[in-house]
Write a structure and sequence with these properties.
27% helix, 1 helix, 78 residues, 3 strands
Length: 78
């Protein structure tokens, strides 16, 4: 399974292996959203669950779900 199999709303995902051989996946733009797994795929699956929970929390609080910087529209007053 590759990153293209997951919908992280345009956020950049970093994958690392730690000293114990566990995999860490986290959002580059929101490093407080992360997950661990024994394999890269497990870390991504856990990150997918964490992202869904974060989005659910934002919705329950009536807040806008964060948008990846790459997807934000910029306006300029030149």
């Amino acid at each position: 399974m590759t990153l293209s199999n997951y919908d992280f709303n345009g956020f950049t995902i970093n994958l690392y292996v730690d000293e114990q051989g566990d995999w860490l996946a986290h959002f580059q733009e929101m490093s407080n959203i992360s997950a661990f797994g024994d394999t890269p795929q497990q870390a991504l699956e856990e990150l997918k669950i964490a992202w869904e929970l974060v989005k659910e929390d934002y919705q329950e609080k009536g807040k806008a779900i964060p948008i990846a910087p790459a997807r934000q529209k910029f306006s300029s007053s030149l």
